[in-house]
Design brief:
The chain is mainly alpha-helical. It is built from 24 helices and 2 strands. Helix 2 packs across helix 3 and helix 10 crosses helix 12. The longest helix is centred in the middle third of the chain and has 37 residues.
Length: 548
């Protein structure tokens, strides 16, 4: 069986178009970045006469941008030239190497500076149109690769097409989600308004891509992420599988140092990240909101004590505090488990108080809802904190195994608790500040006048009007949490070494990065795209919440 190339035999027809579109995109982006530092005018002399210091800054920055663009164009048009040039420069002496790099940069900077000089004369709308059309064209070509891979014979579109075909459930889910959301956008509040923000839509698409990837991971993966096939150790992307017949024919993204499929481990890692980061961040918000609302509303000694504790925790560097909480020595003391016992109770408290304040005048409905929350929440709470591997006296002794609905692996629980503990003080301070601002509004005074209780005012008057900043911070905090998880995995902390989470796989692949870059690059790209999507989604939500 032959190895797969990146675009297969179908690429011979579409690759030239893809290269042309990519080059157009690079030049258009470089032009837009250059003119953002310069002044547009009908002539370069007129622009220089109007504001010479701004025009010179634009010339310098434009030279930098176009030099970088030329490097990218070299990599696109002559993929083997740039690595060969770099290798030749690295083989010579240190002093000659420095001189060679200077000469290479100057040779690229001279034409780049000429292009940067005339770039203000070119209408910015042309580069904007170039970016739009090239992006649409690249996406259309990628879609064509995927469609041909689905309906055509195996391997005709190479690695790109086969990888895209494996994500077919994700593409269907994305299309259905966006179509249904666009139809009912006017009824979806802030989420519906997100469709007016191109940045927010791109971010939402990236985030939903990884969410659906985690949901359909079993359908997407080609192999067990822990399976090892000795002959596939450190194999390149597209290498034919040499194991048992009947399995998938290739390691699409190659094999790692332990002969495991890099593609399957990337997909399996999304399930871990998508599970831990949002749930832990949600629990951190539950803790921060439950404590921040009364602290800001009532003030006094309660506010003073909680603010002091929050500032005390925030005084520690986040990475250092995170590192300490997941070290084996701290874990051996049982501290994270006991922290989980305290922190996991806050969602129940929050929901009970929410229902109590809303239906205080309807005792029958209130009591029924509170009973449902306590029973279901109690079972979930006990199942979360109880496990045979981390016995808890006074709990596991009285909880029958039949009532233990699920077991959270020790490593995931420890990392999740650490995320909650680190993020809760920040959320507390944000909520407290919002309460101090909103409680002076007229609608809060009107609620007080008509006799509403303090918890009703906090949960049903103040909190809904603080949703914009909190939603934006929630998205950003998931991104921060994802980076923290990657950092922990990179240092080999928290999750077990065989875990396919992206940080652990990056750490495992970095040891042979110069010889076999693919085991580290694939999860790194996945991590970057998810965090980028969360940041873009937060920016879009911020824009729409400000309009609201």
């Amino acid at each position: 069986m032959e190895a797969l190339t990146w675009t297969g035999s179908f690429g011979a027809y579409l690759n030239p178009v893809l290269i042309l579109l990519s080059s157009t995109l690079v030049i258009a982006v470089a032009h837009q970045m250059a003119i953002s530092f310069s002044m547009q005018s009908s002539t370069a002399q007129a622009a220089f006469a109007q504001k010479p210091e701004l025009t010179m800054a634009g010339l310098v920055m434009g030279t930098i941008f176009f030099t970088a663009a030329f490097f990218v164009l070299l990599a696109i048009w002559a993929p083997g030239l740039l690595p060969g040039l770099v290798q030749q420069i690295q083989d010579i002496g240190v002093e000659a190497r420095l001189l060679a790099w200077i000469i290479a940069l100057v040779l690229l900077a001279i034409p780049a500076s000429a292009v940067a000089f005339v770039s203000p004369l070119i209408d910015a709308s042309l580069s904007t149109m170039g970016v739009f059309l090239s992006v649409i064209g690249i996406l259309a070509l990628i879609a064509l690769y995927i469609v041909v891979a689905i309906v055509g014979p195996y391997g005709i579109t190479g690695i790109v097409g086969e990888v895209g075909a494996r994500f077919t459930p994700v593409w269907i889910a994305l299309i259905v989600t966006f179509v249904v959301s666009s139809i009912y956008r006017k009824k979806l509040g802030l989420y519906g308004k997100l469709f007016d923000s191109p940045i927010g839509m791109v971010g939402l698409g990236l985030v939903l891509f990884w969410v659906f990837t985690a949901l359909f991971a079993n359908l997407i993966m080609t192999y067990d992420p822990l399976m090892q096939e000795v002959a596939m150790k450190n194999k390149d992307p597209g290498t034919p599988f040499s194991g048992d017949e009947g399995m998938y024919q290739h390691y699409l993204f190659g094999g790692d140092s332990l002969a495991r499929d890099v593609f399957s481990r990337m997909v399996a890692g999304s399930r871990i990240v998508i599970t831990i980061a949002p749930l832990a961040t949600l629990l951190a918000f539950m803790v921060g909101i439950t404590l921040g609302l009364p602290a800001g509303y009532f003030g006094g000694a309660f506010d003073t004590v909680l603010s002091f504790l929050a500032n005390l925790i925030l005084a520690f560097p986040v990475i250092l505090l995170f590192y300490l909480l997941v070290t084996p020595e701290i874990v051996a003391t049982g501290l994270p488990t006991y922290m989980a016992m305290v922190l996991a109770i806050f969602p129940i408290i929050f929901l009970v108080v929410l229902v109590q304040s809303r239906y205080f005048t309807v005792p029958a409905k209130r009591n029924t809802l509170v009973a449902i929350i306590v029973v279901i929440g109690g079972f979930l709470y006990l199942s979360t904190i109880s496990d045979q591997t981390r016995p808890i006296p006074l709990f596991t002794d009285f909880v029958p195994s039949s009532l233990d609905l699920f077991n959270v692996p020790g490593g995931i629980l420890i990392v999740g608790v650490s995320v909650v503990f680190v993020n809760s003080p920040t959320v507390f301070r944000i909520v407290r500040g919002l309460v101090l601002d909103i409680q002076t509004r007229d609608y809060v005074a009107a609620a007080t006048t008509r006799g509403e209780g303090p918890w009703y005012i906090m949960l049903w008057e103040i909190l809904p009007n603080a949703r914009g900043p909190l939603i934006v911070d929630f998205c950003l905090r998931i991104g921060y949490t994802t980076i923290l998880l990657g950092t922990l995995g990179f240092f080999g902390l928290g999750l077990p070494p065989e875990s396919p989470d992206w940080g652990t796989t990056i750490n495992a692949g970095r040891r042979l990065l110069s010889a076999f870059p693919h085991p580290a690059i694939v999860p790194a790209v996945a991590l970057v795209t998810l965090v980028l999507g969360l940041n873009l989604l937060a920016d879009g939500l911020r824009e729409e919440s400000l309009k609201d």
